[in-house]
Amino acid sequence: xxxxxxxxxxxxxxxxxxxxxxxxxxxxxxxxxxxxxxxxxxxxxxxxxxxxxxxxxxxxxxxxxxxxxxxxxxxxxxxxxxxxxxxxxxxxxxxxxxxxxxxxxxxxxxxxxxxxxxxxxxxxxxxxxxxxxxxxxxxxxxxxxxxxxxxxxxxxxxxxxxxxxxxxxxxxxxxxxxxxxxxxxxxxxxxxxxxxxxxxxxxxxxxxxxxxxxxxxxxxxxxxxxxxxxxxxxxxxxxxxxxxxxxxxxxxxxxxxxxxxxxxxxxxxxxxxxxxxxxxxxxxxxxxxxxxxxxxxxxxxxxxxxxxxxx
Length: 311
Description:
The structure is a single chain. This protein is of the alpha/beta class. It has seven helices and five strands. It has a five-stranded mixed β-sheet with strand order 3-2-1-4-5, sandwiched between helices. β1, α2 and β2 form a beta-alpha-beta unit. α1 packs antiparallel against α7 and α4 crosses α7.
């Protein structure tokens, strides 16, 4: 019984050490969520207004720009997948990867060749393990991205959509990331960044309402030196801002998922400690009972021996 008690004590000590680690990670993640939420709130209005400006230029000038015009027969598409650099965040990265895989299958079904760009070590490891090609990857900043990181990620994407298909260019650019909804809800989303889709901006009544809206917009804008050059300047900023916002949303989601996972691990550790403590107490009580029985048995044997010698 003594050996069993020692085993329980060692396990309790180990679980308590694990609990300290998970509790610390939970508190760190909780403190980082606040900063990440502020960054998301600060970047979202800029991204939305820049999208509106690009939409106004493209729609109001009625120009045929390669980054806003649908290809007649799109053949190649690019997907930017955002995952995490570190684990211990529950299903955060795996859910984003599943969303990217579903999007890849859909694009394959449409007859498009898909090229993949990946942010985060978890996504890179997923594709490397399966020996699947990745056009480019970036790691080391997923939990605290900067605008410079977004520019680095956006640069090859902008370049690829501006090239011909024969030179490795793509006709569409999609992004898959985890959107921060609340502390308890983070949702993987798929969005097409380029070419810009004006149907969603216009709504259901595009035939009549869209024509009227275009008539209202056109007289309000003069473009210098030209609408094409304005789009050339605005669209890279649009892609960068959208990538930056997605990186921030993913970072906030990662911290929230890690906090939730670490809280669950801490709670499980507490329950395991209680269970092991009960087992240790039972083993200790069994040891005490056995020792008392041995003492009583020894005393009885001595009494019997003394009585026999007297006779």
